[in-house]
């Protein structure tokens, strides 16, 4: 294997709950009605996709662009107060980056990926948001773009993921997938059965040895 590509939310930042809380509060403030399936449905969606979902499925009384911009602004405020980096994540990425080219392939908007990299100072030369792609996860687009920018064939990449849609995206890209299951939103068992499962992101460097 020639490279390692990381998801961000749920793998390096414990942010899935933050996204959920921010979106729910934003939806309530703008006429939306939250549904039980909304959280999982939006996991992995690109920014335009979940903005449209907030309008069409949740009923937010804004345009999709206004909804996504409003949520992202709230997320920036939340991260300015506290960036919830997962324990062991920074050390794991540094250890892996000493041995492999690394990248981030995330559904998070580029501005929030930049916040993470600025705060942590991690040596990640390639960071791709699904905002740049035609479709978010479970489409493989963001992983394929990250591999392309690394100059490495997808089949020669490890991918590190936590969610059902993220795991599906990495598998569809033809990568060797390692899962660090999100404890708040556990991935589907049938998808986990197709990948190698780690108990913690801190276990990653040894798993790649």
UniProtKB/TrEMBL annotation:
Gene3D superfamilies: HAD superfamily/HAD-like, Putative phosphatase, domain 2. Pfam families: Hydrolase. This is Haloacid dehalogenase superfamily, subfamily IA, variant 3 with third motif having DD or ED/haloacid dehalogenase superfamily, subfamily IA, variant 1 with third motif having Dx(3-4)D or Dx(3-4)E. It comes from Lentzea xinjiangensis.
């Amino acid at each position: 294997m020639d490279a390692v590509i990381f998801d961000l939310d749920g793998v390096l930042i414990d942010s899935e709950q933050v996204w959920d809380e921010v979106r729910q509060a934003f939806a309530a403030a703008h006429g939306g009605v939250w549904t039980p399936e909304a959280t999982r449905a939006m996991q992995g969606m690109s920014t335009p996709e979940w903005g449209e979902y907030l309008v069409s499925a949740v009923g937010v009384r804004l345009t999709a662009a206004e909804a996504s911009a409003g949520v992202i602004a709230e997320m920036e405020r939340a991260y300015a107060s506290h960036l919830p980096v997962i324990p062991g994540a920074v050390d794991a990425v540094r250890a892996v980056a000493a041995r492999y080219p690394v990248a981030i392939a995330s559904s998070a908007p580029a501005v929030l990926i930049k916040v993470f990299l600025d705060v942590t100072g991690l040596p990640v030369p390639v960071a791709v948001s699904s905002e740049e792609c035609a479709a978010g996860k479970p489409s493989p687009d963001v992983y394929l773009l990250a591999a392309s920018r690394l100059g490495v064939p997808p089949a020669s990449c490890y991918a590190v993921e936590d969610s059902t849609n993220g795991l599906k995206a990495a598998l569809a890209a033809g990568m060797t997938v390692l899962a660090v299951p999100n404890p708040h939103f556990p991935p589907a068992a049938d998808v986990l059965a197709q990948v190698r499962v780690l108990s913690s992101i801190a276990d990653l460097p040894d798993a790649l040895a």
